[in-house]
UniProtKB/TrEMBL annotation, chains A, B:
One of its GO terms (molecular function) is oxidoreductase activity. Belongs to the FAD-binding oxidoreductase/transferase type 4 family. This is Glycolate oxidase. Signal peptide: none annotated. It holds the Pfam family FAD-oxidase_C. SUPFAM superfamilies: FAD-binding/transporter-associated domain-like, FAD-linked oxidases, C-terminal domain. Its cofactor is FAD. Keywords: FAD, Flavoprotein, Oxidoreductase. The keyword Flavoprotein applies. It comes from Aeromicrobium choanae. Residues 33-212 form the FAD-binding PCMH-type domain.
């Protein structure tokens, strides 16, 4: 772009520096297509976002909106002939209202910063994706991010009351409300949450907060068979044990963690469950959870109310992906199955790993059935790369067979785009295309993302 | 319609009996337009619904979908040249899965029946609109119904995982999922919840359930000033007191209840708050709630863990509308304001009542700020009728001024249609029209409802 081109974007910061553009050209996913954008734009106000969108529409350039780039499905990957609109300068916490238990924030606020800021008011913003200390709330809203809190608290959508959005034509729309309830019109807020940058650019978010919970009590249960761990998850649900966290890690994941940061997990352990309660009576809930685990066949179930021990255990859980990454190149999956089918899924993953001669670790949010099979392969070997892709597709297909979904929390992006049409029926696929067309008739917003293939604007 | 006409609807039950049609021509709202339909159709399967919609589209007849007719905004009122599609024969509980904590139900199931059926599995379906024993789950989903549970549990939308929907062209679409999490594509489920019959006919609903809570402990707090009651609501929130119910009734409502069913409320009482906790530690939470009420200026705050006493108090709360109805003709409002502005709203309602020389009782869900000002007037006197309408508009306007919404849980229907365009900005209003057009291009589904005026299909 020449100087006149650059000036036409309005007052937003523009960069066409190749190094900058390269670093803004993709998120943290693997196997997802990306290209150098035409420019990186960093507007600092809603009005600047609107100017950028109007100019992009005028030039027929696609707009890929980007938060912190921590996404895992390629939804923020630059496309050929696109600009990247980065929200990092829209980074104000506009207000925190302890009486209404809401906060108003711009999309570029780091999720961890929001959590810290509301904690000073005795409040809690639950959603906690793995990247909570670096991801931004705008990206969380765009992907409807989850995390470890969901078994008790739900996902990002459950905490979004209202939005300010710049639409494809540069017009500014407010959705939702500040009040606890409201049914005036369609729920455009929920439609926009998780729409992966395809319906508008979110410029302000009103989130619901909850009172800060009690310090948690933690349970670590170890199992010598997968089946026993699966039975424990089922029995914990059946018994109505009110947990705020219920995570699982399989043998492969534990062994990777052990070789990175020894915590003393037995090599005979097939899986562990990590559970927490943050209710006021967390001690008795945790004791009950431990009992249920033992009755389901746990080798051991240890309860701890020591904050440092709990942090250590959660830290081990957060090491799952980094530890697996040390074993080679990785491809991270994100499927969600009915809670009762977790063991079926993990067993299938073991079979697939053996068949394809790959290491695949499984960890995830057992309480929700949301699993992250992580395929380790060798990028330098085409056969290994091909095997990784085959394994990925087989796992995704198996999740659907088990009554699950292709993506529990990472989103469709470009990684699962080819699968979306399999999950959706023909009417739902058509409805997606029509909604996309209604919001973005020229198809400039993240074209092709989150829409079942083959994608094209409906004429 | 002649016999050939009647047969063309397929196997669905058809009635053109004027008495039947009259009884299906409106819901329980007042001041809402309605007309005799051309016919009442009662399909007994999804496929029959699809046939009805295809035939309606062929004939250019509008389709007004109706649950039990307990709505309060006129969204199920028959229109000129419409048929009424009643869901009462789609009344099966398809399945209840205790392990996944979900139930699959048809729309004609009475909400109270679903609650009773899942209770046998130790599970709880929280949404509890006032008409819970007669309304149907399909109507609840279509209006995103609330109730007294929302302060803890949320509204109907928070419990809907997935839907089967027949679209305007007769095609059948599934949205959502059975799993706890899932982000594959747009949240069409949330878009359809609360869409008041304008985007499709819901034929099956997958709802999320929760473990059955402990028996509640109840607090009754009486206040000699409205300001003290308002302060108590604010302090209960600030203190993070985890209530499962927080209701308010004003002096006018109490006095109406007292004259219908004497419970011994003091005539000096300006308002009462009724609170419950159903947490395992409900006794200590209720004690804390009573303390907070006293510290905020309550005359009295009584804690009870006696189930019969609690039932009696809730019964009194449920009498609010029937008791006010005895005073004359009534027009029920449903606004939601920030919790901290409840007193401002009630005070304004008192001013409006004085100015218009009307009795207006206020009761509602204090914990959510969702208030039901109930205007008593004389239908036989045009000046009284006009005053009621003026009061209604003034209350709605005041709710918006206070940062609230025109409808907290009853929906827009025909009653608040003229107000929707005031709450939505121009971009949001346009987005509503475009979404409507995407789903129902010929405008046969409940035309005009839930869409900002002036409504017409976009050419």
């Amino acid at each position: 772009m020449d100087d006149a081109d650059l000036r036409s974007w309005g007052p937003a910061l523009v960069s066409t520096d190749p190094d900058v553009m390269a670093s803004y050209s993709r998120d943290q996913s693997r196997f997802t297509e990306h290209a150098l954008p035409e420019a990186v734009l960093a507007p600092a106000s809603t009005e600047e976002v609107a100017e950028v969108l109007r100019e992009a529409a005028r030039r027929g350039l696609a707009v890929v909106t980007r938060g912190a780039g921590t996404g895992l499905s390629g939804a923020a990957n630059a496309q050929r002939g696109s600009i990247v609109l980065s929200t990092h300068r829209l980074d104000s916490i506009v207000s925190i209202d302890p009486d209404e238990q809401i906060a108003v924030v711009q999309p570029g606020v780091v999720t961890g910063h929001l959590r810290a800021a509301v904690a000073e008011h005795g409040l809690f913003y639950p959603p906690d994706p793995g990247s909570v200390d670096s991801c931004t709330i705008g990206g969380n809203v765009a992907t409807n991010a989850g995390g470890m809190c969901c078994v008790k608290y739900g996902v990002t959508r459950d905490f979004v009351r209202g939005l300010e959005v710049v639409l494809a034509d540069g017009s500014i729309m407010r959705t939702g409300r500040r009040t606890a309830k409201g049914v005036a019109g369609y729920d455009l807020t929920s439609l926009l949450v998780g729409s992966e940058g395809t319906l508008g650019v979110i410029t302000e978010i009103t989130v619901r907060l909850v009172p800060r919970p009690a310090p948690p009590t933690t349970v670590l249960a170890t199992f010598s068979t997968l089946a026993a761990a699966g039975a424990a998850v089922q029995q914990l649900t059946r018994a109505g044990v009110r947990l705020s966290l219920l995570e699982i890690m399989d043998r492969t994941t534990l062994s990777a963690i052990e070789s990175m940061s020894p915590l003393g997990f037995d090599t005979g352990t097939a899986a562990i469950l990590l559970a927490q309660s943050d209710d006021p009576d967390s001690a008795s809930i945790a004791a009950l959870a431990a009992d249920v685990c033992r009755a389901s066949g746990a080798e051991d179930a240890v309860v701890s109310d020591d904050g440092r021990e709990a942090d250590l255990l959660l830290q081990a859980r957060r090491l799952a992906l980094p530890a697996l990454e040390r074993l080679g190149d990785w491809l991270l999956d994100d499927v969600c199955v009915p809670r009762t089918r977790i063991v079926d899924l993990i067993t299938s993953v073991e079979d697939i790993a053996a068949r394809e001669d790959l290491v695949i670790g499984v960890f995830g949010h057992a309480g929700d059935g949301n699993m992250h099979p992580t395929i380790i392969y060798d990028e330098g070997r085409p056969d290994s790369r091909a095997a990784a892709l085959r394994a990925f597709d087989q796992i995704t297909a198996r999740a659907l067979e088990l009554g699950g979904t292709i993506t529990g929390e990472h989103g469709v992006g470009t990684l699962k785009r080819a699968w979306l049409g399999t999950e959706l029926d023909a009417s739902a696929a058509r409805a997606h295309r029509l909604v996309k067309q209604a919001f973005d008739p020229d198809g400039i917003l993240n074209p092709g993302i989150a829409i079942p293939e083959p994608w094209s604007p409906i004429a």
